[in-house]
Amino acid sequence: MSTLNGPFTGGPTLNDGATMPWLGIGVWQTKDGDEVVHAVKSALEVGYRSIDTAAAYKNEEGVGRGIRESGVSREELFITTKLWNGHQGYESALQAFEDSRRKLGLEVIDLYLIHWPVAGKYRESWKALIHLQKEGLVKSIGVSNFQIHHLKDIIEDTGVVPAVNQVEFHPLLTQRELLKYSREQGIQLEAWSPLMQGNLDLPLIQELAAKYGKTPAQIVLRWDIQQGVITIPKSVHANRIQENAGIFDFTLSDEDVKALEDLNQDSRFGPDPDNFNF
């Protein structure tokens, strides 16, 4: 695993040999058009090179426009999008990928994820992603919101281990068993909603922010990457996007990492992957 001290270059090497940045920008709930274009361009201007979108966010076209208008070369970027639940299944997944690729205006996607483990469909969807990777249309393939039993299903089915599993991950939901299993299998964990949808007013986080001279958000994002978890905070504000990147010039002590981990309550701000119905 590479250093945690480079702002935007470098990052963990995935199990397929690709390198993914530690920090990216998420665009969930960011409106298509000018809002997402501005967010993407602001992030790329600061130095971000990883952008995470999804078909369900309905802003892939704006993300593509932001990329083109930024002037940053495609080779420098790592673009993730996701297969939505209503498009799962083998043939429908292939078609949905084409739609995403067209909207983004990209020939090749760096990382394509199954957004949720839809019962009865995620196995066939995974086979479709394997096909896309073999065709060279996707560099890396993975999943999102998969529990250990979902991961075992697709690995036993195909022998192909996902490169990434993107899940809700933060100090109130530390996912210890999933993190342990992922490390054992060589699956890179990635945190969505790392900032607990803004619920950062926990006394310990406030104390650590004062101790390190950082914001509460920076404390939590640094905690993510010190555990080897990629993180993709979402923001539409240029100053916040820049602030979120200020996590590579300090290190949390082992004691403080453990103290944050001990905040765990298995509390979710998003849906439970075993009990959702979209």
Task: Label this structure with key terms.
8 strands; Aldo/keto reductase; 8-stranded parallel sheet; disordered N terminus; TIM Barrel; 278 residues
Short overview:
It comes from Paenibacillus agri. With 278 residues, this protein is of the alpha/beta class.
What does this structure look like?
With 278 residues, the chain is of the alpha/beta class. The protein has a single domain, classed as Alpha-Beta Barrel (TIM Barrel). Helices cover 39% and strands 13% of the residues. It is built from ten helices and eight strands. It has an eight-stranded parallel β-sheet. The longest helix has 15 residues, at 90-104. The chain is globular, with a radius of gyration of 18 Å. The protein starts with 24 loop residues before the first strand and ends in a 17-residue tail after the last helix. 47% of the residues are buried. Residues 23-264 form the NADP-dependent oxidoreductase domain. One of its GO terms (molecular function) is oxidoreductase activity, acting on the CH-OH group of donors, NAD or NADP as acceptor. This is Aldo/keto reductase. Keywords: NADP, Oxidoreductase.
Largest sheet: 8 strands, parallel
The total number of structural domains is 1
Discrete helix count: 10
Average of pLDDT = 94
CATH superfamily name?
A: NADP-dependent oxidoreductase domain
Radius of gyration: 18 Å
Sheet-strand content, in percent, reads 5-15%
Helix-strand pattern: EHEHEHEHEHEHEHHEHH
What is the overall shape?
Answer: globular
Relative helix content: 25-40%
Poorly predicted runs are 1-5
Fill in the CATH topology.
Answer: TIM Barrel
Distance between the termini: 36 Å
Structural class, judged by helices and strands? alpha/beta
Organism: Paenibacillus agri
Site (Lowers pKa of active site Tyr): 82
Protein name: Aldo/keto reductase
InterPro entries: AKR, AKR5G, Aldo/ket_reductase_CS, NAD(P)_OxRdtase_dom_sf, NADP_OxRdtase_dom
